[in-house]
């Protein structure tokens, strides 16, 4: 997945899911779990280092790069007990806010 903002010349790419230990729907878990996602950012044709955001607020779930805050809101779809989802079908919901 790639999201492009033409006004600011920013391209945000969802590279991969590093870990997804979120509690599946239909399961009883001791904690809600966490998904960690790797992103790449290209701004004004300059590639930045990869960065990682998490779904759980106890871990890094947002970052500021060149005055823009990128916050991971969700990773969809949420796993269901007994079902696996093809990682290619996941969607990262990210909110970008100019600081």
Describe the structure in your own words.
Helix content is 0%, strand content 52%. The chain is built from no helices and eight strands. Strands 1, 2, 3, 4 and 5 form a five-stranded antiparallel β-sheet that branches. Strand 6 (62-65) and strand 7 (68-76) form a beta hairpin. The chain is elongated, with a radius of gyration of 14 Å.
Summarize this, please?
The chain is mainly beta and 99 residues long.
Question: What is this structure's SSE topology?
Answer:
Blueprint: E1 2-5, E2 10-20, E3 35-43, E4 46-47, E5 51-54, E6 62-65, E7 68-76, E8 91-98
Antiparallel strand pairs: 1-2, 2-3, 3-4, 3-5, 6-7, 7-8
Residue runs with pLDDT of under 50 for 5 or more positions: none
**What is the strand tally?**
8
What is the 3D form? elongated
Radius of gyration: 14 Å
Structural class determined from secondary elements = mainly beta
Helix-strand sequence = EEEEEEEE
Number of helices: 0
Mean pLDDT: 88
Strand-residue fraction?
Answer: over 45%
What is the straight-line distance between the termini?
Answer: 24 Å
Which keywords apply here?
mainly beta; single chain
